[in-house]
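Q: I have 126 residues here and want to know how they pack in 3D. Can you give me a structure?
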Amino acid sequence: MISHVSQVGVYVNDQDAALAFYTEKLGFEVRSLREGPGMKWIEVAPPSGQTTISLASKDFPVGDEAKIGVYTDIAFETQDIHGLYETYRQRGVKFTNEPELQPYGKWFAAFLDQDGNQFFVFQPVE
């Protein structure tokens, strides 16, 4: 039986720039960083997260440049969306949607990484 989602991939133009963005601006932790001939494997995650994000190069064997700068289908959750918004904004993260309460009962915001990949963040309403 499957227990959880282990990892998801996000394609990036420059893995080193992506690593800096995800760790310095988003506050993620490096969970794996391995290099081999012509390849680098990087996984990051929020400090309490179980699922990692692999920062995949467009040059990776199954890479696809068309997957860079797109909506990722990845949504994060926070208990303080307004605080997260202010912290990330001060660190230079670009938001495409400021926090707003949605009719389906969650606070919602959307932001971009250094390559324009879009992510959502939600906060449940108590």
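Q: Anything worth noting?
A: Strands lie at 7-12, 29-36, 39-45, 52-57, 71-77, 94-101, 106-112, 118-124. Residues 7-58+69-124 form a domain with the 2,3-Dihydroxybiphenyl 1,2-Dioxygenase; domain 1 fold (CATH 3.10.180.10).
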